[in-house]
Amino acid sequence: MAQLGIQEKLGILADAAKYDASCASSGTAKRNSRDAAGGGKGLGSTEGMGICHAYAPDGRCISLLKILLTNSCIFDCHYCINRKSSNVRRARFTAQEVVNLTLSFYRRNYIEGLFLSSGIIRSSNYTMEQLVEVARSLREDHDFRGYIHLKTIPDADPELVHQAGLYADRVSINVELPTLGGLKRLAPEKDAGRIEGAMGAVKSAILDAKDARGRYKSAPRFAAGQSTQMIVGADAATDGDVISKASGLYDRFGLRRVYYSAFSPIPDASAVLPLSRPPLMREHRLYQSDWLMRFYQYRPDEVVAAADPATGMLPLDIDPKLAWALKHRERFPVDVNRAPREDLLRVPGLGVKAVNQIVKSRRWRRIRLDDVARLTNSVAKVRPFIVTEDWRPTLIADRAELKPLVAPKTKQLELFA
């Protein structure tokens, strides 16, 4: 490999990291350089403002240096641009170079944390050792208090993955593809059993650390959570397959997030890959379905029910919540002054905040249509599905076809608007 400067390496390895979507920072603990435990001599913080790359649970922007340790890899996964047989320019950082870059960017107020992943070089254990060394050096040698997210390698020794959790705020292990068949076909060197085994070990470590810190203040911290990512559109998996897989991962491993990444055609692509990428709207609909399970109390089978039974795909022209409501017209209209919270969450156009406000307000007054209109972006979308003090959708509800009234209208974008 030709000798490259730091700036050239950064250009190559930052660009290569863009395919990894799972870099949110929710779950991070608040730390700053003035903590008494560090004698006020630490460096970095998980608080403050900066370049927006990820969001914490309270809405704060967390700016991250998002790079790969190297884009060289001994694996030959068909969908990966960094696979062994790919004709791309290669680069590699040393652990010390990543540490120096992170500190340098932080001191210039460009970042508040680090997201570090890597291709597999030499062996899974060797690569994992390098990732852990970066985090260890930042925490112990430089007392870095900022956010660290490490992408761990499931084939590595479990003790190395455990060490990653001791230094990182979050760890993630990609399941890559939603079906076993797709993984065997497109990534034959990866094993679903080892991936899920590593996720299970991280879950146990998180729970053990939480229990220990509840008993002993001096107990070591462990990563606050783990996440994963699935590639969508590289194999024949349907949206129903993806939703079912995500639900299983949430239930079994207590994940913070499942990320969906639409497959993107890559240079010198394998013949087994599709020639074109799936619609980006498909990725968006999967995120919406994920939201329904996490915040709107939908069961996985209910979300799958919103998909086309023939194809297993969610509709692209309307969101899954509206699609489900149109298929279950017998559940509507819902009386906003009487219905329980779980029924109000099923109303298209009403978000969690709007429902909470309705439940709170109706204790003191009867809710009218104007009140609902102030809580939603489109009262026209909501009206066919609710009953208020002064509104009952008698004529609308009797229509055989309701979709034309509530589906978003398509319009031509203006080039010079």
UniProtKB/TrEMBL annotation:
InterPro entries named in the record: Aldolase_TIM (IPR013785), DNA_rSAM_put (IPR023874), Endo/Exo/Phosphatase_dom_1 (IPR051675), rSAM (IPR007197), rSAM_sf (IPR058240), RuvA_2-like (IPR010994)
Coiled coil: none
Superkingdom, taxonomy of origin: Bacteria
Keyword entries, A-Z: Iron, Iron-sulfur, Metal-binding, S-adenosyl-L-methionine
Cofactor(s) listed: [4Fe-4S] cluster
CDD domains to which the protein is assigned, alphabetical: Radical_SAM
GO molecular function, one term: metal ion binding
Record PANTHER family: ENDONUCLEASE/EXONUCLEASE/PHOSPHATASE FAMILY DOMAIN-CONTAINING PROTEIN 1, TYPE II SECRETION SYSTEM PROTEIN K
Name assigned to this protein: Putative DNA modification/repair radical SAM protein
